[in-house]
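Dear all,

This email documents one entry for the complex benchmark we are building for the journal club exercise. For each entry we list the sequence lines for every component of the assembly. Then comes the predicted three-dimensional structure of the complex as a token string, followed by one or two observations. Please use this as the template for your own entries, and keep the labels exactly as they appear.
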Amino acid sequence: MKWKRLAFLATGLLFLAACAQGQKTNEKQPGGPLVRPKVTLHFASFGGSFQDDLDRAVIKPICREIGCDSQVDAYSGEYDHLAATIKNGTNPFDLVHVETRFLIQGGKGGLLAPINWKEVDENKLVPGAKNRFGVGLLAWSLVLAWNQSRLPAGTPPPSSWKDFFNIKKYPGPRALRNTPEGNIELALLADGVKPQDLYKNGLDVDRALRKLSTIKPYISWWTSGAELEQKLSTSCIMAAAWNGRVFNLKKAAQVPVAFTYDGSINQFDWWVIPANSAHKNLAMKFLAAFVNGQGQDTIAKNFGYGPVALKALGAIPPDLLEQLPSDPTNAKLGVPFDGEWWAQNEAAVEKRWNQWLLGH
Amino acid sequence: MRIPRLASPLLLIALALIGGWIAAWLLLPDEVAHLSFLVTIKLGIEVTALCLLLGSFPLYAALRQPKWPKLPHVLVAVSLGSLLIPTIARSLSLSALFSFYGPLATGLRVMRLWPQGQPLDSSHAAVVIALVTLYLPFTLLILSESMPSLGRMPDVAGTLGAGVLQTSLRVTIPRLLRPLATAGLVVFSQVLGVIITPRILGSEDVTLAVLIDDLLKRTMNTPEALRIAWAEMALAIPVAAVAAYFIEKERTARARPLQPALRFRGGRVLSVIPLVILAVVPGALLILSLGHSPILSMASLFQSGPTLEWFRRALLEPGFRRVLLPSFMVWMAAAAFSIFPALLVSVLILPYPQVRRSFRLLALVLLFVPQNALGVLLFMVLSRFPAAQASIPAWLLGGMGQAVPGFAFAFLLMDRVGDRLRRSLALASTLGASAWQRLLKVALPNLAPSVAAAFVATALITLDDIIFVRYLPRLPVNTAATELFGRARYGAAPDLAAACILMALFILLLVACGHIAREFPAIRRRLVASVGRPKVAAELGVEGAR
């Protein structure tokens, strides 16, 4: 009985304390100025250590500068979920980190608010980082990467996608991301299509799949950065890889990997503002400040992804810059990803891709 | 007379499969989905067959080791322990184990058992093996409930002159057909929803679950994804229903053997095989977490010795610490929404055996249907009620979603003591106990162990779920499972493996605490008996009373 009484007493005290706490937050400061609570901008990115750095180096300082609080949540690119919450009006985010795919589809579907390019200075951005519905967040490339310790003795390192398809010269498994985007392009480049002709008449998907079929038994598919890193370091001789992951393998894991920007497929990740964001103006202010380059060099140093702000690009040491996709020389070696073409054809290509994977 | 006994369950399975197959086929939208359906069925059959093979024979042998009477219990314990490892970590560790330049793949190539230059980790065989390590515990747990009831029957048949084939056909298989079918159907229905394992291993198998995920995430083709989710359910529900029906039948048919089984010659090695298989994943995970290399490499530990650095990092990592509170809140919400309704329902329907039976069947079906399709369908339903989605806190909504399988678990656990509880309540009532007394002194103490077990079960669901917490709330909840998933996306360091081991140890600790709490009255009685008796004897002046 003694314990029961004590438990009741403790519960009562906790309840009272909770009530008092609630009251405290609501009451006005007597005699002091009326402090208006800060607005909180709500961000969404892909989680993990990247999001931590993005928050620490970019989001928090900019929010401090424009006078708001920030909250960053992780999502795993569940665009269907994001689209559904925007459509039914329950989307909580003001700024979302998305890939080109969602930028184009979401923009066409009325899910995104147009960027006010009068407020956001496009001249501060690297070429290509501007879209009607998004501001570039980072630049990345799908590059040809290889593990130097797995190359046959005396064989020169691969230099183009043609070598990626050369099983005799470079025996061993190859890692490819399990999506048609990027793979169709690299297969066509390997099959002799010139970079400038790649999107000219639309991508020749069947030709690309025929080329990919020549190495199908040797392909190890990856879907996330972790798998790519693991495959390139322990399982595959080469990979079509996100440049940032190769950068990380070299820097953090000391794995003897190398890559080339020759024939790389250059893309951006984007900041977008959902159409029903509660703080569109403030989000726009954030983007206007973002293009000044605050903290983007940290992302470049830690993850190898290129800054989109020209100012940030200037602050990066040359030895690091030459490893980034934003470096003008590297950008020229690659092919810009055509998000528009993909947005129009993705559903059909995706079906054909799955059909090919299923052996037909 | 044997043929009808065999035919009835087989007929039921055939009807369920054919019915589900036709319904699913008609629901599927196009040729790609049909091809994916066939691939899924093939994968399901392969994994099921292997699980049955690797589960039934070794367990049969384990039950026939009089010198190792605890072996079947060890198998059950290891099976339960194996379920503590999150699927993401399991798949990553298997991927490291099967790596092309690793000892396993190299050995296979040297022996010419694997083609030169082709990856092992992303092969169809690797996916099948990974899924077998995932679902073998289910097979062992289901079979271990029924197989002991065989007792000495096969030995008696042998003594009476029946050969091995005759004994198998006339005694063993008819008796074990139902549990075998149940285990097979459960594994099969679970394989229909696999997505993380083929994805992480890098397989080109486009299963139905993978196709749904692609349609949702890549092309945002929600209507088509929904149709495929319905098709998956159309196939899974009849399968799960037949499995539930068999479990129900087996529950009532099960009997203790009159005499334990005789020794099975040469069965020791066979009985240890599942232990080895189930030890592979935790072993690989441990090796990965102890190595110095910052990537998941099996060779690292052997090249440069062990380190506990990754465990330290996992404990100190702000990312992991940040998700502790949300994970705890989601777990508590899931536990509350699982346990209280299950408790209420269990007590309310206690006097009605038919209703109890229906609830049991429903709970089993809920547990066995693929969770990916369930999550997608719940998401679609919830999207129609934006007000509810907006007003309920994210952690609560995520917990409520997890409570769907959690409720099923909790109800089944509580229902296990239903018959005993019913008798005890009737007895208490006869002795004049009031309703309040019956609840406090009879019902709750009887149900307490089940409540504790349900609490642990919800922890397991919370630690591995990324569907309900990501899809149901408008704002995703960052739990330990989603943190692992996010980290896997941006590079998996061995701290991820260490974090998974720590999570498994935490659950083990919970299980141990639950066990001690359950056994506490008995332990106290033993202590009192051992301390009290000499004291009483001394007081009475009786020497050598013990």
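Observations: Chain B touches chain A through 69 residues (CB under 8 Å). The mean pLDDT of chain B is 83.
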